[in-house]
Amino acid sequence: MANVRDYGAKGNGKTDDFRAIQRAIDAVAGNPEAVVSIPAGTYFISQGLSITRPVRIVGESMDGAVLLARSEIRMVGIEGTEGVEIAGLTLQGMGTHGTYGPAIELVNAGGVTVRECRLRDIPETAISLWHVHDVTITDCQFSGVRYSGVRIQHPGAGNVNRNVTVRNCTFQDVNTAMQSGNAPIQAHGGDPDARHEYITVEGNVITTSGVGIGLDAVDYGVVLNNRITGSGLGYEGIAFCGSNNTISGNQVNNYGAAGILLWGVAYRPIANNIIRGNTCWDNSQGIAIVCGEDRTVIDGLQVVENRCFASSPASRQQYGVQSYIDGTTNFTWRNVVIANNDLRGNTRGAISLVPPAQATIYGNLG
Q1: How many other CB atoms are found less than 10 A from the CB of residue 245?
Q2: What pLDDT does 329 receive?
Q3: 338: exposed, middle or buried (C-beta count within 10 Å: 0-12, 13-18, 19+)?
Q4: Among 196, 244, 199, which residue's Cα sits nearest to residue 226?
Q5: What pLDDT does residue 356 have?
Q6: Which of 2, 72, 186, 241 is a Cys-bridge partner for 101, taking CB atoms 3.0 to 4.6 Å apart?
């Protein structure tokens, strides 16, 4: 174990502890059993810490050990390595008015765990992931983040980000810039030949004015048992695009657009998605299915066993399940099932498919 105090770190919030902490990391990195220990204190760093070999960095607790940045820096960079853990820390940025300075950034990395950390007042994205695999972010707190809380970045044509899990975290005041394409949890897409696979978002609590969870170009994703609350503005609670995704057991309310949105595009398959057992209330729509481009094909979609409702006559939620087109002239639905949903109590009706789309509809209430 390398205690950063033994390498000269003061932890008084004033002395620049960057070199001392970096020396401790460099002294033991590469030893899979090694731990860099950060006792209670506030450790000001003027430059970003660099991790290029396996290492565990463990603070006393997120309430006790604080890494403090007073400028727009990448606080911790993990590049070209496997087997890194960061735990028990607060990463304190300089505020949400800057333009650069992720708290943690992974580039060409895998086998990384971030747990029991607090990330606050971050001038860019809190945790930024580029070309990664097998990353777990669990039991963390995000607050005061300018852009995304966790952002799985566009991997580039022909590349895949794979096996990323965000579990049991809280997100508040994230995407304070209200910039499109950012969210507390965001997978960035756009290239037909780039994608994210096996993304799990489970058990998180999200309060935000923008999109809650945005998963673009995701295949084999699981969004499970999250609690997502909006501020009534025109964004979605969960928005996703891709194939073989399961959206289940989530509670989504108070969004100015859909609680859950499946966005159909022509440049990638939209197939075999399941929206099951969610509760959506007081949004604009409970669940929306949108064909956003000509020649969009939505195949094998199941919308089953959800509860979508308006909690009062004054609520904005018009339909439990609604489909519509966005500037398209042709689209195809195949093997779409809307069944056994409780859609009672929406202000305009249970189901609205405009224009009429081919679907098997049965067992719905409302």
Answers
A1: 23
A2: 67
A3: buried
A4: 199
A5: 67
A6: 72
**pLDDT for residue 268:** 80
Q: Token match 């020396």: residue?
A: 23
In DSSP terms, 196 is beta-bridged to 161, 218
Q: Give the ranges where the chain is alpha helix by DSSP (H).
A: 18-28
Coil, strand, or helix at residue 151? strand
Task: Name which of 90, 83, 138, 144 is nearest 114 in CA terms.
Answer: 138
Distance in angstroms (rounded) separating the CA atoms of residues 3 and 18: 14
How far is residue 133's CA from residue 109's CA, in Å, rounded to a whole number?
Answer: 7
Extract the tokens encoding 277. 């057992």
Averaged over 291-297, what is the pLDDT? 83
Q: Tokens 């990195």 — which residue? A: 29
Surface-to-core class of residue 111, CB atoms within 10 Å of its CB (0-12 exposed, 13-18 middle, 19+ buried): middle
* Long-range pairs for 44-47: beta carbons < 8 A, 24 or more residues apart: 44/13, 44/14, 44/15, 44/16, 44/17, 44/18, 44/68, 44/69, 44/70, 45/16, 45/17, 45/18, 45/21, 45/69, 45/73, 45/75, 46/16, 46/18, 46/70, 46/71, 46/73, 47/18, 47/73
Report d(CA 170, CA 187) in Å as an integer. 18
- Report the relative pairing of strands 2-3 and 35-38 from DSSP bridges: parallel
Give the DSSP letter string of 281-322: ESSSEEEEEEE-STTEEEES-EEES-EEE-SSTT----EEEE
Does the global pTM surpass 0.85?
Answer: yes
